[in-house]
Amino acid sequence: MPNNLSQNEIKDIIQWDIRNWKNALFFWEAHFDFKPGQKVLVLGDRNGGLSLFFAKKGMNVVCSDFDLQIETAKKLHQLHQIEHLIEYAKVDMRTIPFSDSEFDVVAFKSVLGALNIFEEQNQTMNEIYRVLKKDGALVFAENTKASRFHRWMRSKFAKWQSPWRYSDDSEFVNWSGLYSKSFLSKRGFSALFGRSEGQRNFLGIVDSGFGFIIPKKWKYILMGVFIK
Hints:
The protein is α/β, with parallel strands linked by helices and 228 residues long. It has helices at 7-14, 18-21, 23-31, 49-55, 70-79, 118-131, 148-157, 169-176, 197-210, and strands at 39-43, 60-65, 86-90, 103-109, 132-143, 181-187, 221-227. A 7-stranded mixed sheet has the order 3-2-1-4-5-7-6, with helices on both faces.
């Protein structure tokens, strides 16, 4: 487990489709040296799960979201006894209200698509670059377009499909050009079709066993580490 986290801690951090999305934590740790005392901005962390991951490492975290559920997030952080490392801020990620080069790490998980216009997503990525320190890292995991079948299923069953814009892998490759180093990987195919966490867990096991035969462009989770 990353940072010797328990299964329950992983569950509270990832919250849904846990078996596939938790791989982002391993990927981030493999490509960036997180250190106690570093300052982290977590974007789109509505209920505080991802902020928990960084606070467990002794990092100083700004837990933020446009619609931040502060009391819900605080209860989670108090449960894990790391609330003293976290502050809370309602943030529009298109215009991040922090100074240039303020953070060692910026992180997000499945939030960029909420900006359903490419220009706003691009603006957000530029803002993230601005607030990162030299040698700091953007670490992320994002839902992407994936296969035609994924896109069809989302249009039929995902209630948020209309206002959500799934990025193409090539867009992240282009954004990586701002950075001195970049690492990208993809994960997950069938678990997206699960209608309950139990189903997603079972399908995540299938993905783990047979993912090597699935074309990368068909997978729906893009994990990345971009180092400034």
